[in-house]
Amino acid sequence: MIAQAEQLLQRGSSVTSSLLPAIFTIFSQWRLTGAQQMTLLGLSNEKTLYNWKSQPEKAKLTRDLLERASYILGIYKSLQILLPDQVLADQWLATPNDNPLFNGTAPLDRILAGQVVDLAVVRDFLDTERGGW
C-alpha cells in the first residue's frame, strides 16, 4: 500500500481530477451535508471543499486524503456488493444498526467521528460481512 500511495502522490493532479469527483458522487448518493463531507475528507475549511468540487485537479493530494478516499471507496464498494439495491445501499450508513460495533446508532455516526480509524473500522466490518473481499 505504501508503494501504491507513493505512486499516486507522484501522479498528483491526474489522480485527484478523477478521484475527487468519484468521492463527491458517492457523497451525493449518501446525501451527505457539506459539513459531513468535510469531516470525512479531514477538512476544516469549507472554502477548500468547494474549491475541490469545482477544480478537483488543483486539490493537494496527501497521504491522509488518499487513505480517507480509499476507505470511502471501500465502504461504497462493499455496500454495493452486500446490498445490490442502490436505495438500500445508499441508506445503510444512515440507518440505526444494532450490531455491537454501532450500539444502535447509524454507521454514519461512527465514521463522522472524524478519525481515519473510524472509517477503517466500518470498512473492515463491511469487508468481513462480505467475506473479506
TrEMBL record:
<feature type="domain" description="Antitoxin Xre/MbcA/ParS-like toxin-binding">
    <location>
        <begin position="78"/>
        <end position="132"/>
    </location>
</feature>
<dbReference type="Pfam" id="PF09722">
    <property type="entry name" value="Xre_MbcA_ParS_C"/>
</dbReference>
<dbReference type="Pfam" id="PF20432">
    <property type="entry name" value="Xre-like-HTH"/>
</dbReference>
<dbReference type="GO" id="GO:0003677">
    <property type="term" value="F:DNA binding"/>
</dbReference>
<feature type="domain" description="Antitoxin Xre-like helix-turn-helix">
    <location>
        <begin position="19"/>
        <end position="74"/>
    </location>
</feature>
<protein>
    <submittedName>
        <fullName>MbcA/ParS/Xre antitoxin family protein</fullName>
    </submittedName>
</protein>
<dbReference type="InterPro" id="IPR024467">
    <property type="entry name" value="Xre/MbcA/ParS-like_toxin-bd"/>
</dbReference>
<dbReference type="InterPro" id="IPR046847">
    <property type="entry name" value="Xre-like_HTH"/>
</dbReference>
